[in-house]
Amino acid sequence: MSEHFDVIVIGAGPAGYHAAIRAAQLGLSVACIDDFIGKDGKPALGGTCLNVGCIPSKALLDSSKQFHNLTHAFEAHGISTKDAAIDVAKMVGRKDKIVKQFTGGVNMLFKANKIKPFAGKGRLLKDRQVEITAQDGSTQVLGGTNVVIATGSAPIELPFAKFDGKYIVDNAGALDFDATPKRLGVIGAGVIGLELGSVWNRLGSDVTVIEALPDFLAAADADVAKTALKELAKQGLKIELGAKLSKAEVKGKEVHLTYAGKDGEKQLVVDRLLVAVGRRAYTDGVLGDDTGVKLDERGRVLVDEHCWTGAEGVWAVGDCVRGPMLAHKGFEEGIMVAELIAGKPGHVNLDTIPWVIYTEPEVAWVGKTEKQLKDEGVPYKTGSFPFAAIGRAVAMNEPAGFVKMIAHAETDRILGVHLVGANVSELVAECVVAMEFKGSAEDMARIVHAHPTLSEAVHEAALAVDKRAIHKAN
């Protein structure tokens, strides 16, 4: 007879390991299956986020920022340096050490919570049986009262620019270059393309970003996107919009690109090419026959607002279901499902999930953009405030950007907050809290913010909604 668990989680990425840990905390017996293999050839928990996504990219972003500041920004502070150099191998090694620390941390949490990990690919069968196929091809079957599908997502590969792991790479490959490429091509001006493009640009690479859409950061507020584009261009990132790649050919040690730009067909030669055109739900081979679980036209598992698939005892969370492909969204869905399984209330509000792009300056937002509200016919008013008028930002020599707050024209309820500037990845949190508690711009305006801090920009933006900002002409 197969081993039986109260909860079987397929996938140990952000959504999966949160579901597993919370279910175990609630007294349920839990198994977690994952097929990720780390750089050392051993199974590694944490999924894309910890291994080749959120955590390693932030490690490289921080390293490259330190180097860029040393070579470009410190002089303004009266700090001079000579012959600065970057040891790429050491930088990548530091990144790997951080990854190992955090994946090992998840392993320790599994042990502490008595979660049983299984290395291999999980496949849901009927009656909540789960087949595990190990790397050596051997199989075993577990039985579960509940099954949580948390298989995440995978990078989209273009048929005319297939990944070879060396010259044409995905996000994982761009985290592991052994040297700074002299010329780097990036296909896609989304989060991954901009962040990793920034890393190598700061280290001296000549970076060209090719984006098919005519608008930069179309999902973000238009004013924020405009400022971000201007600042990134100042740093040397070449961003071509409305440009569609049609061919990528490796010749010798170069990649020859052909793409259709605004002025007709263009050619570009680079030393490395990062393809970052988005991600797709990783559900290939996850469902057996007669499971009762269905996929949509994009390969995502169909679920309701509580991540239930409609099949008894089967749930799905994270990147493999609807909603934004963000680790923190997966965290909360995993926790919600574990609590629902244990008979407790659970809920995730998809309307107040923050977005962050860790470029320099950072971009962050929560809620609706002006365009969305216009399209929906919602009456609104806005207030914005520049970091250039914030003492802390100027003292830090990071005055670029602003905070824009959007409130309902009649009720004053905050409908969206859009930020571009230093550390806005942290500032957006109070905006999320205010929106989650149905706060108004007036509420935010009356909350005391410490001086001098960057958070004063949020306070002043709230005041500006009613044209009463103190430190700018309204």
UniProtKB/TrEMBL annotation:
Catalytic residues of the enzyme: 451 (proton acceptor)
Entry's cofactor comment: Binds 1 FAD per subunit.
CC cofactor: FAD
Binding site for FAD: 58, 122, 151-153, 319, 325-328
GO cellular component: cytoplasm
Residue ranges occupied by any FAD/NAD(P)-binding domain in the UniProt entry: 5-334
UniProtKB keywords: Cytoplasm, Disulfide bond, FAD, Flavoprotein, NAD, Nucleotide-binding, Oxidoreductase, Redox-active center
One GO term of the biological process aspect: 2-oxoglutarate metabolic process
Molecular function via GO: dihydrolipoyl dehydrogenase (NADH) activity; flavin adenine dinucleotide binding
Catalytic activity: N(6)-[(R)-dihydrolipoyl]-L-lysyl-[protein] + NAD(+) = N(6)-[(R)-lipoyl]-L-lysyl-[protein] + NADH + H(+)
Major location category of this protein: cytoplasm
Enzyme Commission number(s) of this protein: 1.8.1.4
Binding residue positions for NAD(+): 188-195, 211, 278
Cysteine-cysteine disulfides: 49-54
Domain Pyridine nucleotide-disulphide oxidoreductase dimerisation: 353-462
Family: Belongs to the class-I pyridine nucleotide-disulfide oxidoreductase family.
Further facts: The active site is a redox-active disulfide bond.
Protein name: Dihydrolipoyl dehydrogenase
Species this chain originates from: Dokdonella koreensis DS-123
